[in-house]
Design goal:
Helix 2 packs antiparallel against helix 3 (76-91) and helix 3 packs antiparallel against helix 4 (101-120). The longest helix has 56 residues, at 14-69. The chain starts with a helix and ends in a 17-residue tail after the last helix. The protein has helices at residues 2-12, 14-69, 76-91, 101-120. It is mainly alpha-helical. It contains 4 helices and no strands. 75% of the residues lie in helices and 0% in strands.
């Protein structure tokens, strides 16, 4: 009698069995796909952040070179702003991107860059890496 119930039990619970099996397969596929997608997004975001930091570092290096050649070239206030921007770049947590201060530091860098740019009277701007839809043919 027990073996007849086992046969009917498996038939009656066929839907639940398939549901559980589908759930496990979907979950495992989601884990695998999610990790790869997260890796790609992390690489892209890290590249963009590094590129922006490099742009600001390049600007600071050029301005510091100009100061070394002619210390009277920029006002004391502007030299102080350039020094502060250099310190912000040094302070940026490149090796610990999950630090809470990442956004604050980047916003401070952008603001300091705008202040220096306005004081110099130049139209220098970081536009980011060109996107495929930015090109016109």
């Amino acid at each position: 009698m027990a073996s007849i119930e086992d046969i009917f039990y498996s038939s009656l619970n066929l839907e639940e069995t398939h549901y559980q099996e589908g759930y496990r397969e979907g979950f495992n596929h989601g884990i695998t796909t999610g990790k790869e997608e997260a890796r790609q997004v992390g690489l892209k975001t890290g590249f963009e952040t590094g590129e922006e930091l490099g742009f600001y570092k390049g600007c600071v290096d050029v301005w510091n070179s100009a100061i070394e050649i002619d210390p009277t070239r920029f006002s004391t206030r502007l030299q102080k702003c350039i020094k502060q921007m250099h310190e912000l770049i040094q302070k940026y947590p490149v090796m610990d991107p999950e630090t809470e201060s990442v956004q604050e530091t980047m916003e401070a860098l952008r603001l300091k860059f705008r202040v220096i740019r306005a004081a110099l009277g130049v139209k220098l701007e970081y536009d980011g890496y060109p996107k495929p839809n930015d090109f016109e043919f």
